[in-house]
Design a protein that fits this description.
By secondary structure, the protein is an alpha+beta fold. It has one domain: Alpha-Beta Plaits (2-Layer Sandwich), CATH 3.30.70. It contains 3 helices and 4 strands.
Length: 109
């Protein structure tokens, strides 16, 4: 099972609000991004892809997020805040057990 859950859009805003985060990049796999762009070009529509990706797997929710960090903040601390914010939100909404939260720093400064 690998259905992307609708709460990913809510998590985009949550992650952007974490102190030290200044950019949110698409965490979707490259191939999925290319396919979505091709579909958008053919259909003439723009899909609203979320930057935070949540996938339901047998082991639980797998969350991926890719961020840019303000230079004056410590990357490890910002990553911890993002992780904790996501974990707390998913726990609060009761969407299921979390198997993994992957926070990737794509840029500092």
């Amino acid at each position: 099972m690998s259905d992307v859950l609708p709460s990913a859009g809510l998590l985009d805003d949550l992650v952007r609000a974490v102190p030290g985060v200044d950019t949110l990049y698409s965490a979707a796999p490259f191939v999925a991004t290319v396919i979505a762009a091709a579909v958008d070009a053919v259909t003439g529509r723009s899909s609203s892809a979320n930057s935070v990706v949540i996938v339901q797997r047998k082991s639980g929710l797998c969350v991926s997020v890719k961020i840019g960090i303000v230079e004056s903040f410590a990357a490890t601390e910002v990553c911890r805040r993002v992780h904790d914010a996501i974990a707390e939100q998913l726990d609060r909404t009761g969407e299921g057990p979390v198997a993994e939260i992957a926070v990737t720093v794509a840029r500092i400064g």
